[in-house]
Amino acid sequence: MAIWALITGASEGLGREFAILAAKSGFDVILTARQEDKLHALAHELERAYHIATVVLPADLADPEAVEQLWLDASAGRQIGILVNNAGLGRNGAFAQETNWPREAASISVNVVAATILMKRAVAHMQGHGSGRVLNVASTAAFMPGPHMAVYHASKAYLLSLSEAVATELAGSGVTVTALCPGATETEFFAADDAVKATLITKLSLAPASAVAEAGWNAMEKGKRVKVPGALNVVFANLPRFAPRALVAWITAIFLKRR
Length: 259
Prior knowledge:
Elements: E1 3-8, H1 13-24, E2 28-32, H2 36-50, E3 54-56, H3 64-75, E4 79-85, H4 101-129, E5 132-137, H5 150-169, E6 175-180, E7 185-186, H6 189-192, E8 207-208, H7 209-221, E9 226-227, H8 231-242, H9 245-256
Parallel strand pairs: 1-2, 1-4, 2-3, 4-5, 5-6, 6-9, 7-8
Helix pairs in contact: 1-2, 1-7, 3-4, 4-5
């Protein structure tokens, strides 16, 4: 029976790179995102290059009912061996700014609710087959409070905590959960967040999406619980362990405040 990889946010950036890695590894691939044209283009590319099967399932993960339907459609008659919870949203701006709320609400729906639903359905499905791997794309944001991106940082802290907790529950089951926690990466995230070149963090050298995805994929294959790619990111991720949290929040605010 074919083993499938379900990848969210697959139309570009890290999601696209994960889809390529899955295809290279011989998995059939289920691609989901909102941009159907990009998904179909990627599906054709993967089929031609790697001779695998693909399924395109456009979905708005901000809608919990659409998430449930996505899982039903993806798993119908298929064994899902890998789930990559890659889709994510953020918004840069003051927490009190009312105009930010629609995007922040969608961020909670995608980063927290959708990721949890898919992970819950996938884990039960994988346990039924005796094996499987979940890769949750969190962030170094998960390790620290993020003034000016407070909701995004909080959502990634949730995903990291959830990943580590469920990984412990699943120990010895044949199903693993890995949280990938990259720093700033070359994707469309900051453009969608309307923060390109407006914050100090977007002026730094960004890690290539391909390298970040490969680091996460390799960690997932090894069953690692948490992967922070890049030496500098490891330093940032560990900073809250040694510095007062108020100081960490102040430093983070410098990088995230619009200028």
